[in-house]
Amino acid sequence: MIVTTNMFGDILSDEASVLSGSLGMMPSGSIGSKGINFYEPIHGSAPDIAGKGLANPLATLLTVGMMLEYSFNLQHEARRLEQAVNAVLDAGLRTGDIMQPGCRQVSTRQMGAAVRERLA
Length: 120
Fold this sequence. Notes:
Blueprint: H1 6-20, E1 29-31, E2 37-39, H2 58-70, H3 75-90, E3 93-94, E4 104-105, H4 108-119
Parallel strand pairs: 3-4
Antiparallel strand pairs: 1-2
């Protein structure tokens, strides 16, 4: 966790994405002191790849997990979502931004469906 102003947080979160290998893996939340919180994956909307099935949905899903935990006090549900994401990655599914040898590349929709199946 890094506590900073928005501008520096934005810079640091972009730089920290190298730790996970992709902006598509980085959830983000701005937790307000007065109970008002704002969540967004750090990758933004990626309009250059919109509708092409190339975007990694995992940061968005993990951001929802943060919202479940920190805004709605639903820790169990947040852990289930995180476990589903980890299970998909452990099974070797990858979007193009995190593709590795020995893994299977999938589309945005396929990655989301795989996480959903593990939540069922």
